[in-house]
Q: What sequence folds into this?
């Protein structure tokens, strides 16, 4: 059975002390969440080690928001997958639309990042999603299909089974506009079908597909009730422990 997952992407928010306090609040509040819900938080790089110490002994897993597409060496400013694993991360978000949009990440870069993350024992949270103009032109299935084919489908079945997918329509991220459960549900089903065509139904049935884009306590329950939506990747609402945990309680 695939996992129910709620993951918090803190993006470039919180100073170290605030991040540590937020992590402590989340740990405390997480005791009330159903045991079968996996909780992941993705603080900024600078917080990973100390937040990781706070999470020790708790049920919350640590993720980074990105990693380098090279193993090690003269790549000033980059952080490798191996470094993240050694700092306590079990997951890494890859292909977030903000990385694609502002930092020029493309499918070629993402294939390297996916492989290097997996080689270092990290589970990627691989993000896909269409822009507003693509949705308005009715090309959302085509865009998401291409993002899967060009990057994810370069992986072996064994590798893909370690990946979590996040469908995040770009027009819904940080805008307050959420995809309806119908809009999200049909893309999630499409993603699962594509995976089953490439890797077989058992693999597709085991992969968690999260929804992301202005997900909050007031809309999470309806989204999570869709058969192919296995949880959420949460941006803004993950910066408040009470909201993050309220979302995790929406299954
Ligand atoms: C995100 O960026 O991953 C995200 C889903 O952001 P928000 O929840 O703020 O829309």
A:
């Amino acid at each position: 059975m695939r996992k129910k997952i709620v993951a918090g992407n803190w993006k470039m928010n919180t100073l170290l002390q605030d991040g540590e306090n937020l992590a402590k609040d989340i740990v405390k509040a997480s005791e009330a969440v159903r045991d079968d819900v996996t909780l992941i938080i993705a603080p900024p790089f600078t917080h990973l080690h100390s937040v990781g110490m706070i999470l020790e002994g708790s049920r919350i897993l640590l993720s980074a928001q990105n990693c380098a597409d090279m193993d090690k060496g003269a790549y000033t400013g980059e952080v490798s997958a191996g470094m993240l694993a050694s700092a306590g991360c079990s997951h890494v978000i890859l292909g977030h639309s903000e990385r694609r949009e502002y930092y020029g990440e493309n499918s070629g870069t993402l294939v390297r990042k996916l492989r290097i993350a997996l080689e270092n024992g990290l589970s990627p949270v691989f993000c896909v999603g269409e822009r507003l103009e693509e949705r308005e032109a009715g090309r959302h299935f085509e865009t998401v299909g291409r993002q899967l084919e060009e990057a994810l489908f370069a992986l072996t079945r064994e590798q893909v089974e370690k990946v979590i997918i996040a469908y995040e329509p770009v027009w819904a991220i940080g805008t307050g506009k959420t995809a309806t459960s119908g809009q999200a549900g049909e893309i999630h089903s499409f993603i699962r079908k594509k995976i089953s065509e490439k890797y077989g139904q058992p693999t597709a049935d085991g992969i968690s597909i999260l929804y992301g884009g202005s997900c909050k306590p007031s809309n999470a329950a309806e989204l999570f009730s869709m058969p192919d939506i296995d949880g959420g990747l949460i941006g803004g609402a993950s910066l408040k422990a009470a909201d993050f945990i309220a979302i995790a309680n929406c299954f």
